Amino acid sequence: MLKGGYTGRILRVNLTDKTFTEENTSEELARNFIGGAGFGVKILFDEVPAGADPLGPENKLIFAVGPFTGTAVPCASRMAVTAKSPLTGAVGMALSGGYFPAELKFAGYDALIIEGSSDKPVYLWIDDGKVSFRSAEILWGTRTFDCQQIIKDELRDQNIRVACIGPAGENLSKIACIINERRAVGRKGLGAVMGSKNLKAIAVRGSGEVPVFDEEAFKEARSVMNKAMKESHVLYPSFSHTGTPAVMDLTCELGIFATKNWSATGQWAPVETLGVEANNSRKIGRERCYNCPVGCSQLKLAREGSYAGTLTEGPEFESIYSLGGQTGVGNIDAVIAADRLCDELGVDTMSAGVAVGFAMELFERGILTKEDTDGVELRFGNDEAMMELLLKIAYRRGLGEVLADGVKAAAAKIGKSAERYAMHIKGLELPAYDVRGAKAHGLNYATSYTGADHNRGYAFQEIFGIPVPYAVDRFAIEGKGKLTKWNQDVRCVTCDCATMCAFILDMALPDIAVQNTADLMKSLTGLEFTAADVEAVGERVNNLARVFNVLSGFTRDDDTFPERILTEPLKEGNSKGQYISREDLNKMLNEYYAAREWTMQGVPTEEKLLSLGLESAAAALKKK
Amino acid sequence: MITVKVRAVAGMAKLLEGSEQSVSLEKDSRIVDLLDALVMKYGQPFAEKIYKSKTGEVNNEIRLLLNGRDIAFLNGLDTKLKEGDSLSLIPPLAGG
Question: In terms of CA atoms, which chain B residue is nearest residue A245?
Answer without folding.
Answer: B95
